[in-house]
């Protein structure tokens, strides 16, 4: 399959998901949004399930390409920029519809191993990317030396998924969550004055890699 064909089918899948949602989506709906026929779609994919597996993989690749480089001269600045990308607020109707459709796909993942594997892979890549920023910050002396990069990555990925679920389920913009995460980076992670001087890293906090609350 050519790159042009892949892009066309994936773009059509995005538009069809926004229009119809996961449950009502059919191969004909995707074909209607594509320059390809339904027969062409079935030539490349056995059905909706297999096409959506490819779509999830496409989303992962797109996200990684878009965030391969993030602006910022320091690890903290790059982590802030990455958070902005993760929790960007797109309030147009198509973005809202797509968030809802993705929530429907996530709801299927406990019963569909392929969906679960792809969502888990995206989750892992997000966690590792954040952990790398944090580890770089610790090495540079920007973040407190006792911060656990892996645990912080797990925590922030959980926050991201929660914000996206709320945005889809109860139409709650992620903007306030994004502001809280920026404060968390500056107040709980940073080792400089005004950073996390008042955070006791021996207490159970998300930053220290132990379960607790702030």
UniProtKB/TrEMBL annotation:
GO molecular function, one term: DNA-binding transcription factor activity
Feature: DNA-binding region: 26-45
Segments for region (Disordered): 191-214
Keyword Coiled coil applies: no
UniProt keywords, alphabetically: DNA-binding, Repressor, Transcription, Transcription regulation
Domain of life: Archaea
PROSITE patterns listed in its UniProt record: HTH_TETR_2 (PS50977)
Keyword DNA-binding found: yes
Domain HTH tetR-type: 3-63
One Pfam entry name: TetR_C_6
InterPro entries linked to this entry: BetI_C, Homeodomain-like_sf, HTH-type_TetR-like_transc_reg, HTH_TetR, Tet_transcr_reg_TetR-rel_C_sf
Official protein name in the record: Regulatory protein TetR
Organism: Halopiger xanaduensis (strain DSM 18323 / JCM 14033 / SH-6)
Lineage: Archaea, Methanobacteriati, Methanobacteriota, Stenosarchaea group, Halobacteria
